[in-house]
């Protein structure tokens, strides 16, 4: 009996060991999405993650199978290789409007095959030529002044058992759809914002469970939105058209195999309802007395409604939705109910956010509740909206006598505070809920450290991104602007890619950049372009065309965005080349180093004005370099040669025009030196002395920065690259104006547009341009994640396939940690100082490798898991000139401990 127990125990132990060593598959995605519905990509790409407890897990082969129902459409067979991200489909041509399933299995580096994964799915979209629906517009004369939301409805019968039902919807304007009185989907502000005349998104919904046997009804409301509402300034509206229109198609497949289509056509009816006014900038007016109760239900009597008017608008511009739609996210209750010195009732939600407030209310018919929105209170504690300029940002609700829950539909607000007028009951915080709206991006990055103000800065960076990533990357979300400014997006793009999964978000937006780019290569200031056709070509703004796709490639390892944008990238370089004379670009209007530091008292004449054409030449060279890099990746050898010749000329012209023989730049500003060094504009032998000049400039301002939108993203990176990480820390931790922590000390919960949006005396900067939710200066996050915490990727295998862990200790901090959900799994770099020891904790996801830089003079002083690194053959430890020991590792969790030498940085931390 004992022998049997021993044998059973051995088998049990062996089973547990094998189970622990077993590799599993997770996070199956198609085009970066989980089970997407509505893909118009003809060659979708598949990704998956390997997971397991043992170290060094790698994939050596994979096999994929794809099917439609019971029919196999692709079996890859066993394919050797470690690719587990963006593996392209290579089977039979995919059919439109069809649901596919796929599974994968892999072989690991121990020769073991995993079981087949759980099935994942994707559903293909509807090409323009397969739309049977007609565009429809209201059949009545609209109120041209207020332009209420339009209601469209149609009743239809379902007399068989439904197998599947799929709705395809888009609009000129913003829409909300209902089936049998229930909302379709959980997306808001659909169909999103694109360059509508060239690219109009539609959404696809599985509505199978929403249909009933017998009579059904569909109802869709359409508001002005970006299509025909007010945009930009001077009363500009109807940027894309003056009509409000709907395109709707419902495809029903019954269990007996028959099909039926419900489409928008001349059989629909139209009217208006409770939404009497709706504008993105100005807000919404809802009069519940005019609500047409039950209008989206089958039994509603629409005899008094108008027939619709079909229109022959283009369907060729229709595209499926590429990126994640806008959805509701976090909610906030008021943290304070205030009575201001002016006698106003104000609610403080404690966080500057973007979205709206949901209100519970009951009052008499005709009672009017007015909600106004603001980001800040003035120095006296009064409600402040002057910085919103012409935007009214007001929600007005007229009650019908019934208890109700109120919220807008086709607008959004940037706010922390609301002013409440006319609320018919006692103000109770539980009756007011702020709801955050933003694109449904996966949160991917986390950063924490021992400095509470830096942790708040990280909070502000992420909330600035949330508030400005509503389908397009806007500059600000609250005033009469909210436009897709290209310079802000390019400056922040690498930081954005750490905090959230933005590869689809930016892929969609960059296609609009290319669509709105002028034939001569000029790139507009804002995308979608609602300004004048000639408003563009500003250096650092238009360079979004090259910089952002390259940053996305580095962050995600996805070459498709480079393939898609390559023509656009070359066109922008061609524009600069055409504007140049003797390879110098010294023409055109440029924003320059936007909102750089201007001293309050400039008696010494040191205001940090950087020559705009010096800046232009730097960005010109950088864009040429990115085109060279992209051409190399895409196998365009002839282009590599052509652009390398051009780059040499552009840099030579820079040196001749802007650099003295002794290595001094003609503009002696921080931004001038930062850009020249970051983009390698200087001869190599002159770079270190230029970095010293930069450091001296910073010290001369009392360890303060003077950079604006174009210099700030690269400032600390350049300092660390040339050995001034201690100075980078001093800049980061500076608490007085101008600095990153000054707004934090002033109570900011998002990033400000200006370094001194609110001055030390609590007065405001010029209200005509003073947003308190403007993410550009949040680009410092990239340095915090990749240099301070030390979590980075190499260019040879980007997207964190080859990971670089190289922390930079300093600033008196005792710990810092960055963690990122990569396409392969979780990657983490975290360091902590405990007395005389430095602990470095690292996590490397399966199917990747890492070079881990451990601060220390030699491998003999470092232990991992209690054993000296020098005694473990697997590490291949190598000492570097900058006092790191590098070890190469596969996947797993590691804990390195080393005795750190006494340096000013570590002494301060201890």
Automatic annotation (TrEMBL):
GO terms for biological process: carbohydrate metabolic process. GO terms for molecular function: alpha-L-rhamnosidase activity. Residues 795-867 form the Alpha-L-rhamnosidase C-terminal domain. It catalyses: Hydrolysis of terminal non-reducing alpha-L-rhamnose residues in alpha-L-rhamnosides. It is an enzyme of class 3 (hydrolase). Residues 160-330 form the Bacterial alpha-L-rhamnosidase N-terminal domain. InterPro entries: 6-hairpin_glycosidase_sf, 6hp_glycosidase-like_sf, Alpha_rhamnosid, Bac_rhamnosid6H, Bac_rhamnosid_C, Bac_rhamnosid_N, FN3_sf, Ig-like_fold. Its EC number is 3.2.1.40. Residues 443-787 form the Alpha-L-rhamnosidase six-hairpin glycosidase domain. It holds the Pfam family Bac_rhamnosid_N. The keyword Hydrolase applies. Residues 339-438 form the Alpha-L-rhamnosidase concanavalin-like domain. Keywords: Hydrolase. PANTHER family: ALPHA-RHAMNOSIDASE (EUROFUNG), ALPHA-RHAMNOSIDASE (EUROFUNG)-RELATED. This is alpha-L-rhamnosidase. It comes from Niastella populi.
